[in-house]
Amino acid sequence: MSIAATNEAVAAPEAGSLQRKISWTGAFWIASGVPALVLFSIGAIGATVGAPAWFVWILSIVFGFIQAFSYAEIAGLFPHKSGGASVYGAIAWVRYGKLLAPFSVWCNWLAWSPVLSIGSGLAAGYVLSILFAPDAAINTWQLTLVDLGWLKAGLALRINATFVLGAVLLLVAFAIQHRGISQTAKVQVILGVVALLPLILIGLVPLFTGDVLAANLGPFAPLAKDEAGKVIAGEWNMAGLTLMAGGLFIAAWSTYGFETAVCYTREFRDPKTDTFKAILYSGLLCIFVFTIVPISFQGVLGLGQLVTPAVVDASGTVTTPAVYSGILSADIYSGMGVASAMADMIKGGPIVHTVIVVMLILALMLAIITSMAGSSRTLYQASVDGWLPKYLSHVNENGAPTRAMWTDLGFNLILLMMSDYVFILAISNVCYILFNFLNLNSAWMHRIDRPAWDRPFKAPMWLIGMGTVLAYVNLFLLGMGADIWGAGTLVTGLIVSAAIIPVFLFRHYVTDKGQFPAAMMEDMHLKAEPGAGTRAGMLPYLALVLGAVVIIVARSIAVY
């Protein structure tokens, strides 16, 4: 039996399997939530990097677009599988180490899943900003459950209005997903048109009205502050380069995200052609949005200046933080004030302001549904393949992986209680960069180990090579820039990514008695092509060692 036929025949014990109901346009509209990810960190990057922030976004989306061609190729090798690029890359790594494959899939899920909590938290904040004044009781009350200050200053698990409203929005996204991929795609078309419109307007209108000031886009120097806290142009020394690395590191979480378009290969009517088209056109959309929106946002608002100096007590402890204008203001950094600032860029009065904010809320809902669709299918396929607990391989009568979706939802309700969404994003991105490294290297591993396999799309070798180089560039940015977002970011991210080890060991050695599912054995072609699976020899292990060296060196030269 062929690999594809074998997997078509494999079903979860309780129900059927994912259904082929969409074309590349359906995946495009589901992935159209990715441009909304610019809302998550546009303020944080600007307030950290300074004037070159707009260039960070452009360079990062160029990196993401180059990498996408490697993902399109490996997805085409397995048209019968779902769950995203990590599932396809895991097949390359599994014969070189059982733990490497689930590690890649786990890191991909940890990267995508927090979109649910961060997006719903921001959307809830936008709703509250429309309905209530900033100092209203509903915006200020909070019940602190756990103080996490030992991990990062000011971090805590808390319940407030943002959490309650965010939880409601997550349940709405779940209800839409429950109806299956076909109905989800239809909802995404509607949301996509409504939600992408404000981003396009925000990017284009200020350019045509002349509100984008060239002075706000320069000087091309990293952010620095003098002893009084005033904003000055920094230098391109190691400290400045570290800030740049931190900006490129965090931007990758948003700009690389359109690779989610290959999550739905198993649900394409014609995976041979739909996979490449989905990721190509999703990538072109993201290039447009991630270029014009940051330029206009920064060009209109400006970096900002010191408004009120920090208040320091006799011991030198800051009791009241400094207040800044523009992108440096606290609500822009957190993301909560981004929608209001963007709405003001259109200059249409109170009604237009409210309409734009509402449309940006829909943009965040678009991103949430995109993430839930992709991350839940990653959990589903990882369960079918024998990486994660078996209960996750269940789908309902509509072909939706509901148990994986419930797991996603429960995990994100915990994250939604966290008081610092930027820190969550940074931890998540540590996992995302690790996944990207393994997956980009899997492209050349598949070329060596599976030279005769049909490739509906075969990327030029120079693109595979550039993707491999970017795998190490990403690791360098990780090592150098992760801790810009909190002293424990890199270590915490590595610990979280390693949590898959006990989970996989239990599934593989206790539940499955040390044997992979039959379909997974076929995918590793242990039966189809005996002895053909490890032609790469020591190269994968050397790639891992070099990757570790890159992170260590980058971390050692960083200056914070």
UniProtKB/TrEMBL annotation:
It comes from the Bacteria. It is a multi-pass membrane protein. Keywords: Cell membrane, Membrane, Transmembrane, Transmembrane helix. This is Amino acid transporter. The keyword Cell membrane applies. It is found in: Cell membrane. GO terms for molecular function: transmembrane transporter activity. One of its GO terms (cellular component) is plasma membrane. PANTHER family: AMINO ACID TRANSPORTER-RELATED, INNER MEMBRANE TRANSPORT PROTEIN YBAT. The chain crosses the membrane at residues 27-48, 54-72, 109-133, 153-176, 188-208, 238-258, 279-301, 321-339, 351-373, 413-438, 459-478, 484-506, 539-558.
